[in-house]
Amino acid sequence: MTHDQVVIVLTTAAWSGGVGLIGGVVVWLGRRASVRWLTVGVASVAVLSVVAGTLATARAMFISGHDLGVIGLVAAVAGLVALLFALAVGSALARWSRAIREGARAFGESGEYVASPGGPAEFSELSDELRRTSQKLAESRDRELALEQSRRELVSWVSHDLRTPLAGLRAMTEALEDGLADDPGRYHAMMRAEVDRMVRMVDDLFELSRIHAGVLRLSPQPVALGDLVSEALAGADSVARARGVRLGGEVEQDVLVTADPASLSRVVSNLLMNAIRHTPADGVVEIRGRAVPDGVELSITDACGGMKEEDIPRVFDVGWQGSSARTPDHVDGVGGAGAGLGLAIVKGIVEAHLGQVAVANHDPGCRFLVTLPA
Ligand SMILES: Nc1ncnc2c1ncn2[C@@H]1O[C@H](COP(=O)(O)OP(=O)(O)OP(=O)(O)O)[C@@H](O)[C@H]1O
Ligand SMILES: [Mg+2]
To answer: Among 24, 37, 86, 356, which residue carries the largest CB count within 10 Å?
Structure first.
């Protein structure tokens, strides 16, 4: 590089740099203005720094007066074009961002995001993100509606389910009162069974409301899964026998789980009773327990013939029951004509233990899988 060139570079750098610096400050101060003015600001800084550099080198007499006039004219026209271009780009940016803003506002009002603003990648990304959020919101809203619906159904079903045994009790007490009952002993047994059923239902409701209120008190302690399952099996044995259902399966030896014993028993017996109730005579209900890397896994497989795919996401909802479960007056001693609370309680208890419960079809029936941290 010749000496002159070095001087030109340094002079231009100093002057253009100065303009750039001042421009930077001005753009920074105006950073809250519309993007339209920011692009114009950037273009102006670019043009002005060229002009400043040119003027400085002219003053150092590297450029003649005539040439300076030509350069000035070129700079003016080019600068005007650049400014117009910047204004156009800035306006387009402002328009795209306005489309997103309006889409977001409509999203807030209608809950659905529909805008597709176009523009640079960042805008499309932002827009895609809003669309995903809107989908997620829609899903949770649907879920909320379904829950609300099942809660409403629950109230009507529970009142129905309580009214039926109450009407039966009234009829039986009246018959006893009037001395019309030819076999009072049988009436007493039936009354006892009805009362037990109502007590169970009220207990379930109470348990569920404690789970939902978050006041379920757990006293976790190491529990031998094998013993707990054996007890549940023993408790369910008479019912299974009465229905001709065979109980099987096994739990790996010495599997320990930290859990509240009473609550966990309730989980196992609810699942077991459901499985027995939905398994036809001669079917098999299998319960298996094993240690897995991050805890223990308990599976209960029945021979219910499979659940409808659309029912699977709803079985754990409060008050939800499959269509065949709501047959009035069918008392089978297995919590028949229940209220659809059993699985909601199971889920509540398992989640209070930081575990998970899921169900899937598994020939010849369905399988409930409970995982609990060790
Ligand atoms: N093992 C199973 N096999 C097939 N269907 C099942 C099974 N367990 C539950 N279900 C279905 O899920 C529904 C909800 O079960 P859940 O235990 O919550 O209520 P319920 O047994 O009907 O009444 P409750 O348990 O309150 O006495 C049942 O009505 C049934 O349709
Ligand atoms: Mg049940």
So the answer is: 86
